[in-house]
């Protein structure tokens, strides 16, 4: 039996990102993937939003992705483009890059960190007990892990085996996506009619990329070539002689979210935790950000620096984020329905989004730059992403994101004189302490300028856990909550955490 501290099921973007995060913390992790290899047939999702690019930048990875894709203003709402070029970020844009390239780059990163990705390993079921989780493969092999994370998509076997409910709403519309050959030249570009939106494009491999809305909601299985032909005839009056598809799938506006992101030693991330219509292109981005929120927390629990209840903050923080994504994708699906009254509502929404304040707020939301974890009242920075500011340190100039490359917490002290009140040395083995100077305006997307703090505690995911304003009030509590008890008190406080194998 193979034994690991963590087994991740699913080698998509979420699973691979999580694997890299755990490997950075030296956690013994392996990924199980039912596909025979990393090659992903079909283009699938395409595009990274600004916050996801920032997250990659926090790990020193952004340039790899930027060199493979094309930067563009990709944020939008119900067909209304939302420009973020004036936002206070080093990445005021999105990135057009197909999922197969995103996965390959993340797989390369996982390989560099020594993470084994086992292809052709289909998980049949799991059984958990007080000490870990048994993972049964379809071929009879067995694995054992202290924790299992299901990153295995909307039909997640891990979620079902853990008994986690997946409430939501069934599909009201469906579309077919395909990459195939055609005997006739199709009608290139986007076409919209009473059924919905349809499109033809030329793929990177020279095939014809097809998207066509079905007249009726399709069944919950993979579609057939016959169904694709029938859908094309219904829209265009011809199927253009479509044949030899290398990829054919169906997507719907099914909207569901896991009732809990954790059940004991089983956790969920990405599509296993939330599914929705692709409007706004937020699915892949939300999953990658799930992974970055979970990775450091799970690592600290496994290393016994934090108690197991730190994992409960993963659901508390990420469930509301996805719930908002689901709510707004449903709204966008409704606004694109071919109904005169809804079209009037859509025109009104477009008019509102043309105004400055609504544009800023919705653009910040759709780009992921406004995510705010509720860490209680206080400074506007608290719970929000830390801006990537330019710093002057004794080691020379640095960017804030460069301090996060190793996925460790950072106590950034910006005052000329060190305030009294809290001895942070008991956390020195876990928290990087940096003295720096910073000039310029502190500004957040949508909120605008905020008061400059004298110190901030930055979590490994880049969110601010504590803000100092000339005092250290609350710092010890924040360090204990997010970095574990101080040295000497760790054994008692982390007693419920699982030991490393």
What is this structure, in a nutshell?
By secondary structure, the protein is an alpha+beta fold.
Q: What does this molecule look like?
A:
- There is one protein chain.
- With about 500 residues, the chain is of the alpha+beta class.
- The protein is about 30% helix and about 25% strand.
- It has twelve helices and 29 strands.
- The strands form eight sheets. Strands 1, 2, 8, 9, 10, 11, 19 and 20 form an eight-stranded mixed beta sheet that branches.
- α1 runs parallel beside α7 and α7 runs antiparallel to α8.
- It is globular, with a radius of gyration of 24 Å.
- The C terminus is likely disordered.
Mean pLDDT: 93
How much helical structure, as a percent, in the residues?
A: 25-40%
Number of helices: 12
How many strand segments?
A: 29
Basic shape: globular
Rounded to an integer in angstroms, the radius of gyration calculated over CA atoms is: 24 Å
Task: Sketch the major β-sheet.
Answer: 8 strands, mixed
Give the amount of beta strand, in percent. Answer: 25-35%
Oligomer: single chain
Protein structure class: alpha+beta
Contiguous runs where pLDDT drops below 50 for at least 5 residues:
492-501
What is the end-to-end distance?
Answer: 14 Å
